[in-house]
Write a structure and sequence with these properties.
Length: 224
């Protein structure tokens, strides 16, 4: 029987040891991807997004980044994050004269977040179950961050600048946490599947970002 194979037990022990030595954030995110707690949300949203993409195949190709040959979403995220980070730097170091410029950057980041979220939603719809679970948390953090950024912009316009700056800094923290989950989906889970944004790989073996590390690759160095 396979269960009696000592090599299987050895592999499982080494995988468990590797997990124990992984960073806490990584272990927590792995727990999230394996938990069915978010499945009801996934099962409610996923069919709706798939149907919307099926009705607009041309738009779906664009959102997946097909004309580029790789996923569009990671490229798109640089714009709102860069704008919001620049606004935060001006808020913290620019002085009173930098206020209008920070506000403008903040507003532009809010506008850029809308198309960026569409590309992420399209990729989420074609990814595997583990990615969809992490993606729900990723989207929730981004949504909360976007609400805070929008609230910050309104507060600034109404003259409550200190409170507006505090709201945007809190939003930056949420978006940073969301960015960690986004990186996990991309680098650890291999999302989105390459075939949706360009030709699949022609290599004889899958790339490292397309599959979980095999047991033979687990060792002291891979656990760091």
């Amino acid at each position: 029987m396979l269960d009696d194979d000592p090599t299987v037990d050895d592999r499982e022990n080494r995988m468990s040891h590797a997990d124990d030595r992984s960073p806490r954030l990584l272990r927590a995110t792995r727990t999230l991807e394996e938990s069915p707690a978010l499945d009801p949300v996934v099962e409610r949203l996923h069919p709706w997004v798939v149907r919307a993409l099926d009705r607009q195949p041309g738009l779906a190709r664009l959102l997946h980044g097909r004309p580029l040959g790789h996923a569009l979403h990671p490229l798109m995220t640089d714009t709102p994050i860069g704008l919001w980070t620049s606004a935060a730097v001006l808020d913290l170091t620019g002085g009173p004269s930098a206020g209008p410029h920070a506000d403008r950057l903040l507003g532009l980041g809010i506008l850029a977040a809308l198309p960026t979220s569409l590309t992420g939603l399209a990729d989420w719809a074609v990814s595997g179950r583990r990615t969809r679970r992490v993606g729900v948390a990723h989207a929730a953090l981004n949504s909360a961050g976007l609400v805070l950024y929008a609230g910050s912009w309104v507060l600034r316009r109404r003259g409550a600048r200190p409170l507006g700056v505090a709201a945007s800094l809190a939003a930056t923290g949420l978006v940073s946490a969301s960015g960690y989950l986004g990186g996990h989906m991309s680098s650890r889970l291999g999302a989105p599947p390459r075939g949706h944004s360009g030709p699949p790989t022609t290599r004889p073996t899958p790339d490292a970002d397309e599959v979980d590390a095999t047991a033979d690759q687990v060792g002291p160095s891979s656990a760091l």
